[in-house]
Model the fold of this input.
Amino acid sequence: MALKTIIEPFKIKMVEPITMSTEAERKKFLKDAHLNTFLLDSDQVIIDMLTDSGTSAMSASQWAGIIDGDESYAGSRSWKRMEKVVKELTGMEYVLPTHQGRAAERIIYTHLGGKGKTFISNTHFDTTRANIEFSGADAIDIPIEEGKNPKQYHPFKGNMDIKQLEENILRLGAENVGAVILTITNNSGGGQPVSMENARQVGEVCKKHGVLYLQDMCRIAENAYFVHHREKAYADVDYKSIAQEMMSFADGAVMSAKKDALVNMGGFLSLRDEKIANECKNLLIITEGFTTYGGLSGRDMEAIAIGLDEVFDADYLHYRIRSTEYLGNKLHEMGIPLMLPIGGHAVYIDAKEMYPHIPVDQYPGQTLVSELYHVGGVRSVEIGSVMFGRYDDKGKLIPSPMELVRLAIPRRVYTQSHIEYVIEVFGEVQKRIKDTKGVKITYEPAFLRHFTAHFESL
Ligand SMILES: *Cc1c(COP(=O)(O)O)cnc(C)c1O
Done:
């Protein structure tokens, strides 16, 4: 007998109160924040689905590890512990600790990048692309065709197009390719997984042409869950072994520990090549810190070591992926249009389809974000024309290809009843669709406008 109710595979030992609010209060909070949920105070939010980054709840073991952290400048015990866990997972000899993922990216892409170089990825995450382009290099994305279609089912929509990979290497010349980067899972592509077969094939093409192969391993454990359940040959292989095998194909890896290491801050860069590692260590020392702590406290490294082990727990991963899927499937059953299948860390709503009467220059995504907050205090984020829209010479909006809203699920933070609450909020928002009006921008900065722009309801 298999029971169907999803329960959290943990008990709660310490609680953080949520400040509840009324609809009238939220209306005022939202107005004061100019309808931009980035400008809300966290105490004004009931369920925070802005991001899964750095928002994980740590376990009792991790908190115990915090006390046990060794803050020695050089050769800290906590560093040794983190280094051992990372080496065992990646199989790579050199580990450089950094304060978060983008610091590892800045170091490796400063070293490999520069004018004339091109990087090729299934999809570059925004900080990855920014670091590559800042070095003067170019970044191109080649997800498989199915990965671009929000409605089409494919078990591994995060895969890279192998044919295009080889064509691009031949076109550019292998010596001009900075590196090939496989983002696992593919965050910008909807948290979609990458298959073992694809990760292996990318490695074969890179080896054949002598191109460096990096993996962005932020969500390597969540990806392992999908490989185990969707790739036949791996049905009997445990999650950690799957992750280890996947990483065995790569020459290096970057990780934001704020995702699958279940901590609030941290990251690292792993490499096999001694020469590249030494060059990167020089860059590490200039801005992050000495090689045995990077930008981290001893206690942070202790928590990462423990988190990277806990994340592969089969009960944890089952709860994690199933509860994300549960939210997505319930919304789908209610008729809320969304990206399918549901990825690992988030549910993406198609706001353009949900609000067919709101044109893209009235930002249907931002409208849904406001609605979710107003009705239930749920904070989400627009991934559409507010974030990616540009203007042409005449000031007309060039919209983003999709108008999505992301509900990212923090790890181990919310319970099943919180998820039920979010579903109920959607039910109320859905009832108001016809009467919901779009928004207009009343203020916007020149760069990254989604963080600070102001809006008004039409
Ligand atoms: C979060 C993230 C990063 C950047 O990490 P930070 O810790 O936020 O600097 C890089 N790649 C992917 C896929 C991510 O999700």
User: Anything to note?
Assistant: The pocket of pyridoxal-5'-phosphate is lined by residues 53, 100-102, 125, 127-128, 183, 187, 216, 218, 256, 258-259, 267 (CB under 6 Å).
